[in-house]
Amino acid sequence: MDMRIPLTRTVDLGVAKLLPDVDRPRAWLLTVDGAPQSYVDLDDPSHLEFEYVRRLAHVLDQLPGDPLDLLHLGGGAMTLARYAARARPGVRQTVVEADAGLSALVAEELPLPAGCGVDVTVADAREAVGRTAAASVDLLVADVFSGARVPGSLTTLPWVRAAARVLRPDGVYAANLADAAPFSFLGSQLATFATEFDQLAVIAEPSVLRGRRYGNAVLLASRRELPLAGLARSTAADAFPARVVHGDALRALMRGAESVREDEAPARSPEPPSGAFTVG
């Protein structure tokens, strides 16, 4: 019998809850203020419950070269970092989490495996990137939310320049975003990243792209060609298939959008519909 009980703790940025998955003996859902943040299976880091995390894992799987250097902005329960440590032996990873209380909770209740090569630091995402050496990162993952919205500080042209500085010439930026038709926020982000990166793509479920619902979209940006064919195969084979949008279809998403040029006018992602990202 599973004797685990939910755990609730007030952290720096809200109220965190760890909820056991009754179907998996060492799996947990982490929420903050009712919004799902992470799902992690301590026995099986390759089990990725959230669709958008699987999209990010598909990106990681397609990157050539080992060992890789990964920088994760937004830690949560560090689901992707755990996956990367298992899937890409020798990978070097830094996880940046702004919430010290949340980081402590995860370290206590969901500890990382010993010797997994993951360095965890408590810091603001922009400040951490500013301290990162130039051209030192192969994959920069931005999965940062304030509540259920992407903070405006990670949407502007100065932010894009900062991210571009730390990536290697063939490095990839991958951001978990959220939007709905008419995709004003997503379009503005594509236009902003296009100022620094030649290659762009978006991974999202067809129902989101068709404007039927609000949902996650993974934005990819690089100065070198993205592994689009491999990504298309892996995302199409997912239990919840997604599309890789690029070329003319991507330009249609960007049509009429302007880059977010000033920190004084950040563009937060839209407020999700009631119940979109909440757990009772």
UniProtKB/TrEMBL annotation:
SUPFAM superfamilies: S-adenosyl-L-methionine-dependent methyltransferases. One of its GO terms (biological process) is polyamine biosynthetic process. The keyword Acyltransferase does not apply. Residues 258-280 are annotated as: Disordered. The keyword tRNA-binding does not apply. Keywords: Polyamine biosynthesis. This is Fused MFS/spermidine synthase.
